[in-house]
Amino acid sequence: MELKYEHGKIIIENKVITTLDRFVLDFTKLLEEYVDYVIVSGYVVILFGRARGTEDIDILLRKMDKSLFGSFYQRLGDEGYYFLNPEDENGLYEMLEDGLRVRVAKEDMIIPNIELKFARDDFDKYAIDKKQGVIIGEQHLFISPIELQIPYKLYLGSDKDVEDAVYLWEIFKEKIDKALMRTFMRELKVTGDDYGIEV
Q1: Strands across the sheet containing 139-143
Q2: What number of helices (H) and strands (E) belong to the chain?
Q3: For the chain, how far is it from start to end, CA to CA, in angstroms?
Q4: Alpha-carbon distance 40 to 38, whole Å?
Q5: CA atoms within 13 A on the CB side of 169
Q6: E strand intervals along the chain
Q7: Cα separation of 21 and 31, whole Å?
Q8: Is residue 169, in this structure, part of any structural domain at all?
Q9: Which pLDDT tens digit goes with each residue over 106-120?
Q10: Is residue 150 part of a domain?
């Protein structure tokens, strides 16, 4: 697998497309017909080759109104998806409005699933406004900017999250805006010095 930067996008070449990748690419292709989104957290490092498992793919959504969500809900059903949460369309929308997450999977499956949440705080909104395009063959998806993703992983602080942060740093340290990353590290009150992440 090779990574290239062109015109502000990350191009992944010679990647073996896994079942998980196909699941995410198919879902995000549908999703972007309705709303701006950005993938955050664990799947980002898996996308770039880190060998680790995940049960869910975390996706932030720009807030959509109830009517548009209703259309999206109907479309998911038509395309063979279902919500794992035991709520109807109105209940699911209320959960999102309340800052909770809802989960979507393909029919007859539980794992993997997509975890959707409306963007709420400034970090969420920045991630969507400045989303990073990733090209894989003829398809694409959008991820959180690496400059935010690394500090946020350090902020979460579990062993797995720190390992994810280090992995992204090793791949992207020569490409990212380190001044911007320093800003996010200050705002999140984290440091990467103990892990070789020095900006």
Answers
A1: 2-6, 9-13, 132-136, 139-143, 37-40, 56-61, 113-118, 102-106, 81-83
A2: 8, 9
A3: 26
A4: 6
A5: 22
A6: 2-6, 9-13, 37-40, 56-61, 81-83, 102-106, 113-118, 132-136, 139-143
A7: 15
A8: no
A9: 999 999 999 999 999
A10: no
Per-residue pLDDT of 60-92, as tens digits, reads 999 999 999 999 999 999 999 999 999 999 999
The pLDDT tens digits of the residues spanning 141-188 come to 999 999 999 999 999 999 999 999 999 999 999 999 999 999 999 999
User: Would you place residue 55 in the very low, low, confident or very high pLDDT band (cuts 50, 70, 90)?
Assistant: confident
| 7 pLDDT more than 80 | no
Contact, 165 vs 171, CB < 8 A? no
Q: Which residues pair with 24 in a beta bridge?
A: none
Residue 199 located in a structural domain: no
**Residue found by looking up tokens 């880190």 in the block:** 50
How many structural domains compose the chain?
1
Q: How far is CA 44 from the centre of its chain?
A: 6
